[in-house]
Amino acid sequence: MKAYEINTTAFDEENLIIFTDLTESQIKKVIEPIVLSEREDGEYYDNDVLLDALVDAYPKNEIYGYQNNPKLITI
After folding, report:
1. Residue 18 needs a FRET pair 20 to 30 A away by CA distance; which of 26, 28, 45, 74 works?
2. What does pTM read for this prediction?
3. How many structural domains are present in the chain?
């Protein structure tokens, strides 16, 4: 399982963090058309839409989304 931070906007606080066994190419295959559709046609999406699209596309894979900034632990 890997952690990915997905940036689709100019605002870092809107990044989507997922933990998944998907590959980077599988993630891009699903998310890029959604993002491009908004940029070209004004179709609205948010991180929940992106996460749902991944789960719908790969229902047998493990996909967990995290919406907040991770908490840093300093030791």
Report:
1. 74
2. 0.85
3. 1
